[in-house]
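so my prof wants the structure for this chain in the tokens format not the other one, which i didnt know existed until like an hour ago. anyway here's the sequence
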Amino acid sequence: MEVLTRAQWHELRDAHVARMRRFTGPHQERKLRKEKHPVMDFLFTYYSHRPVRLERWHPGPGVVLEDAAEYLEFPHYKATPDGVALDVDSFLKQRGKTLEFVQALLTATLSRPARLGCFGLHEWAMVYRQEPEEIRHNAWPLRLGSDGTDRVVEASRIQCGHFDAFRFFTQPARPRNTIQPTREDQVANEQPGCLHANMDLFKWAYKMEPATPSDLVADCFELAVDVRELDMQASPYDLARLGYEPVPIETPDGRAEYVRRQAAFAERARPLRERLIFVCQSILTVTSLR
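here's what i got, hopefully its the right format
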């Protein structure tokens, strides 16, 4: 066990808070103004981790915090002779099944080569043949208009294997997908080139808190922020007014840029996926050794 003095863990905690407030602060300000943001809101609404929870620092397993009685107010912590530490037994009793699922999903995803070239068409399929008032981000214009957006969908090969993206397809768009993913075959379908699978590393990180060290949660969140930007730059929406220049996937140059950035995100996600798997293994192994 690593033991951190109060001064040491306060320094780590404060650095984490400052790091996350670069994102939570502007989000809270927009919320007070009742101002929607089609890129950043996703990270705080679709993903259910509240800003206050994102700012909260956890050391993860194998670390004891000296003079940290306040952590006993949080779930899954216990007092030890040296200080406060993660209560592995309590965590496993409540979250063991989650750990097993996350380990299986991330291990399967990691084992596959990245499939590139989906070109972010899931966002286009989410507005295909929709009336303007039904479009999710209808405060923002479609770059090509409704008819032009529909033509891109009809001229493209859509191959989205991520169920949580596919489930938002419009009904006319669903049969155009090359596969029909379900929740039950999620482990069999997810692959490391998928933007949404890489954004979801943030979800799996916070779902395993407080077992996930907060530096890993923060790394996964920052990856999700950057991936989300590409996700919406490649979407049919015109977000130039917010400073997001389009990646026009309806053109050869736009598709080439999308694949290049998609491949870079797959590489950046790999070590994060490996670290999350290690968190699962380190906790589950404790149980298997008993």
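also thought this was worth mentioning. The two ends are 18 Å apart (CA to CA).
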